[in-house]
Design brief:
about 20% strand; alpha+beta; 3 domains; Helix Hairpins; Heat Shock Protein 90
Length: about 425
């Protein structure tokens, strides 16, 4: 089971990490594309601004091209950004240029398309192994020159910026993926830890339950085999049936307790709360158990010092009292006594069941309310207990918002149940 939980933890970690990686990768690519679009939009805006300046200032005097009275076309914008210019006439011939322009042959199709349609085209071209961003625009005839203007700028810096941004994004994504993987592993471990504890507890519970069931079944089988091995007298058959009936009753109680605890584990055991006079319930329960106590020469008495009304399930509270009295009477020798007392204050009701039996060793008091736990040999199966009654008492007390504990009684033991008082 531990291997299964470990494999489940790894699978959960892998799934969460892979999911984050897919989503994160998509987000990273989207962010890079957005940044790239912004960068190229900025370049295109710069090229468009420079093209407007060139178109407004270019002049053609008998085939002599000038710009604002200067023979040379500019090689940078007014902001100091480097640009290159190519001027084509209406026949596609280069009539002027400045800067490190692309090879005119690489622009032939773009120039002819712009000259024909009059549209403005932004594109990336590769010339002599160098990528350049270009904007191609038709020069209106009103300037004295009917042709096409190509404004270009190298993409080297932009590509370096985009590459550096991609490296940063990849590093951040890798770091976040590792962090998510570690966090998923830790959280999966925490989430599965209760499952592991519950699995271990249920495995122990199943083993203990099987052990408890094996004994009465073995006794019943042995008794039946003996009684059937040969003809018996009516008294012998009656004795054999009495043994089988006793073990069947023990199995019935055990099955009922196991079912109740299983319901509690599954959260299906919900108390039906109502206003309950606990004093009346104590006196009624003590009265029912007095005949059994008298049969074993054990005095069973009630000491109700105050009226106590609580919000509780009558069936479950009666079961809690029955289990505590059954436990106390079985472990009290002849001549002893069992006393059920009820006290407390305005905030809580204190119910105590005290016996004069052998008591509970201090080293076992902390685990006495665990399932299949018995205080000592005197509290073993031969006295009729399976080690589930006190566990049920703790479940019932906690369902009602209370607590249960055991103390030394000098002599015997005192089981104390503290319940909140009804408002």
């Amino acid at each position: 089971m531990n291997d299964l939980l470990r494999a489940t933890r790894l699978r959960l970690t892998a799934f969460v990490t892979a999911l984050f990686l897919v989503v994160g990768a998509a987000a990273t690519v989207g962010l890079w594309l957005l940044f790239s679009h912004i960068e190229y939009s900025s370049i295109d805006a710069t090229l468009a601004s420079e093209a407007q300046v060139i178109v407004s200032g270019v002049q053609d005097s008998n085939g002599h091209i000038s710009f604002d009275g200067s023979d040379a076309l500019p090689t940078q914008t007014s902001e100091g950004l480097g640009v290159s210019l190519l001027l084509f006439d209406e026949h596609g011939n280069v009539v002027a240029r400045s800067g490190a322009t692309p090879n005119p042959a690489s622009l032939t199709s773009l120039v002819s398309n712009v000259a024909r349609t009059g549209s403005v085209v932004n594109a990336t071209v590769s010339s002599d192994g160098t990528a350049q961003r270009v904007m191609v625009e038709r020069v209106p005839a009103s300037t004295g020159l009917a042709g096409v203007l190509v404004v270009s700028r190298p993409e080297r810096e932009t590509q370096q910026t985009l590459f550096a941004f991609a490296v940063i994004l990849a590093g951040v994504m890798a770091g976040l993926t590792m962090m998510v993987g570690v966090l998923a592993f830790v959280l999966a471990g925490r989430a599965l830890r209760p499952v592991g504890k519950m699995t271990a507890a249920l495995q122990q519970f199943t083993a203990d339950a099987a052990h408890e069931l094996r004994a009465p079944l073995a006794l019943m089988r042995a008794e039946l085999e003996v009684s059937l091995s040969r003809a018996r007298t009516p008294d012998e058959y009656r004795a054999s049936q009495h043994v089988a009936l006793t073990e069947a009753e023990h199995l019935s109680v055990l099955a009922d307790e196991l079912l109740t605890l299983a319901q509690a584990d599954a959260g299906a055991l919900q108390p039906s709360l109502q206003s309950l006079d606990l004093g009346d319930l104590v006196e009624e329960t003590v009265e029912r158990w007095q005949p059994l106590g008298n049969a074993g020469a054990v005095t069973v008495a009630a000491d109700v010092r105050r009226e106590a009304r609580v919000q509780a399930d009558p069936v479950l509270m009666r079961r809690l009292l029955d289990n505590l009295l059954d436990n106390a009477i079985r472990h009290t020798p002849a001549g002893g006594s069992v006393t059920v007392s009820l006290a407390g204050d305005s905030a809580a009701v204190v119910l105590e069941v005290a016996d004069t039996g052998p008591g509970v060793p201090s080293g076992l008091q902390a685990t006495l309310f665990d399932r299949f736990t018995r205080g000592d040999a005197a509290r073993g199966r031969d006295t009729g207990g399976a080690g589930l009654g006190l566990a049920l008492c703790r479940v019932i007390a906690e369902l009602h918002g209370g607590t249960i504990s055991v103390m030394d009684g000098n002599p015997g033991a005192v089981f104390r149940v503290v319940l909140p008082v009804s408002s």
